Amino acid sequence: MSNLVPAEDIERIVGASRHSTMHIGRAISSEQTVYILHSHECKDSGIDLRECELSLALDRGIERPSWAGYEDRPVALGIIHERLVPLVDLTENPA
Questions:
Q1: Distance (Å, rounded) from C-alpha 68 to C-alpha 29?
Q2: I need a labelling partner for 46 at 20 to 30 A (CA). Which of 2, 56, 65, 83 fits?
Q3: pLDDT by residue for the chain (95 residues), tens digit each?
Q4: Concatenated DSSP letters of 61-77
Q5: Is residue 16, in this structure, part of any structural domain at all?
Q6: Residue 1 lies in a domain
Q7: What is the model's pTM?
Q8: Spatial CA neighbour of 7 closest among 74, 75, 17
Q9: How far apart are CA 85 and CA 61, in angstroms?
Q10: How many domains does the chain have?
């Protein structure tokens, strides 16, 4: 199961501000860890963030080939084949 990171730390770790609807993530290569910054919409919904569909996808694993070149930077997140994938590099295409 995914672990919760304190709200005051997650934006700094991911390197982005919380977006209204988009989930943003960062794969930290030195830690072999992916962090998810949940959207305001998701956070404000009241659900346990570990039950969010993106957290559950992360629990199933990442689509490794999709992450090549997307490590160590903030990315918009999505799900393909039930696994967490980066959709857009936000350092090149800010939200």
A1: 11
A2: 83
A3: 678 888 889 999 999 999 999 999 999 999 999 999 999 999 999 999 999 999 999 999 988 889 999 999 999 999 999 999 999 999 976 66
A4: -B-HHHHTT-TTS-EEE
A5: yes
A6: no
A7: 0.92
A8: 17
A9: 9
A10: 1
